[in-house]
Structure formats: C-alpha cells, structure tokens
Amino acid sequence: MHTVSGRVRVEADQNMFTRPDGPGSMTSELSESESDELLCEAGVGVLAVTDGSDAYSVPESFGYDGERLYFQFVYTEDSKKMAFLEETETVSFTVHEATPARSVIVQGEVERVPDDDESRAATAIAENASIPTLNVYPGTGPDDIDIDYYQLTPAEITGRQFELYTPQKSE
C-alpha cells in the first residue's frame, strides 16, 4: 500500500480479480430472465440524470411490467430532479441486491405516461414498487406538490452477478 498525494493506493495482486479456485471471472452476465426477475423484485433503484455538465442521482421506487419501468414522481415547482430530467436524453437506472450480489442497469428515455396508460403504470407500481410515504417535502402542503406518472422505455438492459470472495491474509 502506498500513499500518493494524500490518497491511499493499493497495489493489487494480479490474481486478485480471478476466482480463488482457478482462472476465470468473478463476474458473470445475467440472462434476460434473471434481469427481469431482479427488476420485478427490487422495487427501488437509483435514477441518474444530467443537465449536460452536472450529474444528479436520486433513489426512486418503481414498477416494472416486463416492458417498461414506471415511476410516480412527486415534485415541487423548483424540483432539481425534474429540471435535470428535462435536460437528459438518456437516463441510467440501477437496481442491485447484496445477496446474491447482482445488479441491473437500464438505459433509455424517460417520458410522462400518456393519460390512456396511467392505469398500466399504476398497476405496475402497485405490484412491485417499494412506495415511500408521500411526505417527501417536509413543510410543503399537498397543494404545493405535483404527482405524475413517468415511464422509462429501455433502450438497453444489462445485468451482472458477482461472486463474493474475501481474500485471506497471507502469513
């Protein structure tokens, strides 16, 4: 271990990222069905947006119907999330779990759900979202917040599973 400009740099053994029982990767791709399963079970993830120069990530509950991710955004007139969302062409949405260690990243465009599809969004959210209380803005009355359904249509879905391995201290 070395210190460089106040930061700690760890020199890794070349075998640190290979399986302890021999060559091979400690990371594997999730199948489409495994990725869908995690999206159906997760209920909450992290939405990453940008305004062109700065990034902003926010945890969001969501529903998934096998085709789209649905969100019920609660926001005020001066919402940072909504301002960034208006500037973002492609968002990233990440869900993960620790046991087994796996994650899914969905990239695509987020847009408001058309009025005719709101029941579809509400059903997906009711079936598998982890819904927090609506008191996300303490001190703000119900007349000062907006609530709208939005959908993320995936352009790309990638999933990975990670083998957990803790190296043993050598003597």
3D structure, described in words:
The strands form two sheets. Strands 3, 4, 5, 6, 7, 8, 9 and 10 form an eight-stranded antiparallel sheet that branches. Strands 1-2 form a two-stranded antiparallel sheet. The protein has 171 residues and is α+β, with helices and mostly antiparallel strands. It has helices at 32-42, 80-87, 118-128, and strands at 2-4, 7-9, 27-29, 44-50, 55-61, 63-64, 69-75, 91-97, 102-112, 146-162. It contains three helices and ten strands. The model is unreliable at 1-19 (pLDDT under 50). A hairpin with a 2-residue loop joins strand 1 and strand 2. The radius of gyration is 20 Å and the shape is globular.
Secondary structure elements and their pairing?
Layout: E1 2-4, E2 7-9, E3 27-29, H1 32-42, E4 44-50, E5 55-61, E6 63-64, E7 69-75, H2 80-87, E8 91-97, E9 102-112, H3 118-128, E10 146-162
Antiparallel strand pairs: 1-2, 3-10, 4-5, 4-8, 6-7, 7-10, 8-9, 9-10
Q: How many runs of DSSP E, i.e. beta strands?
A: 10
H/I helix tally? 3
Order of helices and strands: EEEHEEEEHEEHE
Which range does the strand content fall in? Answer: 35-45%
Rg over CA atoms: 20 Å
Mean pLDDT: 83
The chain-level structural class is alpha+beta
How does the overall form come out from the CA principal axes? globular
